[in-house]
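Saturday, quiet lab. Running sequence design on the structure tokens for the scaffold JK sent over.
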């Protein structure tokens, strides 16, 4: 998948390896087959005339109810009370007529004995009893015994084991999907190196490196120059250097791990500012100092990929199935400069010899013997020479799927996934997510056998090549992009789910916020028995506001920003970051020490939290997604526009169009929500119609005016590129910070791209063309 260098910051279609087919080894070459046929009636809930009849029938029924209310108010009030009681009690049942309709859907199954009458509360209790702490701990231990990168014998053995564990659960469908992707590994014949050279270019000191430490997708080759220290390598850090007249052009930039910036973003910003190379190290100031927690030592480097994007960078916008033909292009997100991870010890050696302006106080880390100076010159006149020697290899990847088929709407999927691979032991990177995935699959499979009849299908996926930029997941999304907005209800990423047990963070689409808010009130905090996650967070000073935006390296990011599917990644952490991620020290013993021996308990709590949300999505007649959430986001931007209204109008730019589009979207979302609230949600056709529209809300915010190949993250709120709200906001800020750089023509285009996408979302939510016409007539 590609990303512009101008950016700032199914079950019915699957690979044919199933329980009923001839079994092949996971490591063997398998041919993926795409069958993307979608019937016309899948595009909408049903014929338009049927929908019109339903709406008219509802309206006539409403009038009759008004007459009855006047004549027999007591009777209607009593009936309404009983109906409300039935709904809010969470009773899960199907009327005989509805069950008859389900049998006609094709593929729908009759509920198991006793399953149709289970309360939501009963299902919660069943799930809690079935979830096992010990299974989670044992699986993490098994997965993280050794490094298991894609294509290795360890990785292949683990894939085979997970496939067998899925098969042992005897779910409705289990299969693998194979693809070839181009991954980058250290060259075994030539090692990367780092050295100090004198003014004549002769090597005066060779600095030792661990040959297994590398940044996947770095540019290969050499870079020689002075050294500039750029703190975390954030945009504001490079702006500070520019203000202080410290040029990074032609220099090797040294940056700290962290700061809310991925390795890919650090390297891209260094390259954008003219650097010839990048070195990234973990500063002791950024890792825990509690002696009980074995803080990251100064001889360990952190490895992370540097592709500013996701998926196979050599098939941007195309799925890497082994029979797919694609043009010979590569992602613009691949860096053009070499990048290496180094240890704090190596960073100390380099930075202690620099001369130049002193660092601002917030930049001062805790490297030994270092007076914080930004460079670029060495006190002894030497320079740095770095050489990166990596090679690209085509690797056979295997994504592993298992599913429980929904009994009412089997073609709507709730997806749970976790990466399986890791360049190191990966207790946090891949072990925890894989363990919770398998435990939730086992739990829900057992619940079905005990009588649970999910309305919608549950899809459990073990992704390959996550350490290279979520390659397995992104390639699957690229293969089924045209249909996912019709079938994928939500995605839950389990990657790095447990890094501590104090603070819960949620990187999420706003559509899922209500689900999470309800779930944290139901689930007990792993460290505070008898208290819910919500109550404990409130006790800690209201830190229950744990929502964070999706970020590029998140396992959930591509689902929302690329495919338009509501997605969430949950994470239990400590106040200080887990220091061992992406290192050889990410072992189960260290994770247990961080957690005080509570790995199983914490993993179970996280699993229960995700399970609670999945249960609601699989149980409720109407999908419990907050379809009005984006109205508030756009309202905040409208307020910023309003502050600059006079300045914009003086430049011939009017914000009125955005205000109108925002109003249209807000009214359309609220109208749809009211229609849902006052509808008969036990009428299958109406329920299907509304759920289809709800599932498309996130998809509506994918800009139709940019290329999915050149600008894959098309979502105007969560994506990356000039079409996004963040880019528009940043450009607007120039009116105050740097008016000379404000480009009226560029801003006009950005405003048009965003506004038309927003207006399109409003029109789609509103539904009928005559309703859209009326909406415009009254609001413009």
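Result came back. Writing it out in full:
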């Amino acid at each position: 998948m590609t990303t512009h260098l101008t950016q700032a910051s199914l079950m019915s279609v699957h690979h044919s390896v199933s329980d009923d087919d001839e079994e092949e080894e996971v490591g063997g070459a398998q041919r993926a087959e795409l069958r993307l046929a979608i019937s016309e009636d899948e595009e909408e809930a049903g014929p338009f005339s049927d929908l019109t009849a339903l709406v008219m029938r509802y309206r006539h029924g409403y009038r009759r109810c008004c007459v009855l209310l006047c004549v027999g108010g007591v009777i209607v009030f009593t009936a309404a009370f009983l109906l409300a009681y039935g709904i809010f009690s969470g009773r899960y049942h199907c009327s005989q007529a509805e069950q008859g309709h389900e049998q006609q859907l094709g593929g729908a199954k009759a509920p198991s004995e006793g399953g149709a009458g289970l309360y939501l509360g009963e299902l919660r209790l069943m799930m809690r009893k079935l979830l096992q702490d010990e299974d989670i701990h044992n699986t993490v231990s098994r997965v993280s015994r050794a490094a298991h990168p894609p294509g290795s014998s360890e990785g292949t053995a683990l894939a085979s084991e997970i496939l067998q564990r899925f098969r042992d659960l005897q779910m409705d469908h289990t299969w693998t999907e194979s693809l070839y992707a181009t991954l980058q590994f250290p060259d075994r014949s030539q090692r990367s190196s780092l050295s100090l050279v004198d003014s004549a270019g002769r090597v005066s000191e060779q600095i030792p490196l661990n040959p297994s430490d590398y940044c996947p997708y770095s540019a290969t080759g050499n870079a020689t120059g002075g050294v500039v220290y750029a703190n975390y390598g954030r945009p504001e850090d490079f702006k500070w250097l520019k203000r202080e007249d410290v040029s990074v052009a032609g220099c090797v930039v040294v940056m700290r791990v962290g700061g809310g910036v991925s390795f890919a973003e650090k390297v891209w910003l260094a390259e954008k500012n003219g650097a010839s190379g990048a070195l990234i190290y973990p500063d002791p100031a950024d890792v825990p100092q509690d002696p009980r927690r074995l803080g990251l030592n100064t001889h360990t480097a952190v490895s992370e990929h540097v592709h500013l994007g996701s998926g196979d960078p050599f098939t941007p916008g195309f799925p890497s199935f082994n029979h797919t033909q694609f043009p010979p292009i590569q992602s613009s997100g691949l860096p053009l400069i070499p990048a290496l991870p180094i240890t704090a010890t190596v960073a100390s050696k380099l930075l202690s010899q620099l001369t130049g302006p002193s660092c601002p106080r917030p930049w001062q880390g805790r490297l030994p013997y270092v007076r914080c100076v930004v460079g670029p010159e060495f006190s002894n006149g030497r320079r740095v020479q770095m050489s990166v020697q990596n090679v690209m290899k085509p690797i056979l990847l295997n994504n592993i799927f298992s599913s429980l088929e929904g009994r009412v709407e089997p073609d709507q999927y709730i997806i749970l996934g976790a990466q399986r691979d890791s360049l190191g032991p990966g207790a946090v990177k891949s072990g925890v997510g894989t363990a919770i995935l398998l435990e939730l699959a086992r739990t829900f499979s057992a619940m079905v056998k005990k009588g649970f009849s999910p309305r919608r299908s549950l899809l459990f996926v073990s992704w390959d090549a996550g350490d290279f930029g979520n390659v397995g997941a992104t390639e699957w999304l690229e293969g089924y992009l045209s249909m996912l907005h019709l079938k994928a209800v939500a995605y839950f990423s389990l990657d790095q789910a447990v890094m501590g047990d104090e603070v819960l963070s949620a990187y999420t689409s706003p559509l899922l916020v209500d689900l999470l808010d309800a779930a944290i009130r139901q689930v007990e905090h792993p460290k505070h028995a008898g208290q819910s996650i919500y109550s404990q967070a409130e006790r800690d000073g209201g830190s229950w506001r744990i929502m964070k935006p999706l970020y590029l390296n998140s396992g959930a990011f591509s689902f929302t920003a690329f495919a338009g599917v509501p997605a969430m990644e949950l994470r239990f952490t400590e106040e200080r970051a887990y220091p061992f991620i992406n290192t050889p020290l990410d072992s189960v013993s260290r994770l247990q020490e961080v957690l005080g021996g509570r790995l199983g308990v914490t993993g179970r709590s996280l699993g229960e939290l995700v399970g609670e949300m999945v249960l609601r999505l699989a149980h409720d007649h109407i999908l419990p997604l907050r379809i009005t959430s984006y109205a508030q986001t756009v309202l905040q931007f409208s307020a910023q526009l309003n502050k600059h209204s006079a300045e914009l109008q003086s430049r011939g730019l009017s914000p009125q169009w955005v205000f109108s589009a925002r109003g249209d979207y807000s009214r359309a979302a609220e109208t749809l929500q009211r229609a849902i609230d006052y509808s008969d949600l036990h009428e299958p056709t109406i329920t299907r119609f509304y759920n289809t529209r709800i599932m498309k809300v996130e998809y509506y915010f994918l800009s139709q005016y940019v290329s999915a190949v050149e600008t894959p993250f098309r979502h105007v709120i969560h994506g990356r590129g000039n079409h996004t709200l963040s880019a528009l906001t940043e450009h607007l800020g120039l009116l105050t910070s740097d008016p000379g750089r404000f480009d009226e023509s560029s801003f006009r285009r950005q405003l048009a791209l965003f506004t038309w996408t927003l207006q399109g979302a409003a029109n789609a939510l509103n539904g009928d063309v005559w309703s859209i016409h009326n909406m415009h007539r009254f609001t413009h």
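Notes for JK: Residues 71 and 542 are 50 Å apart (CA to CA). The two ends are 39 Å apart (CA to CA). Ask whether to fix the surface positions before the next round.
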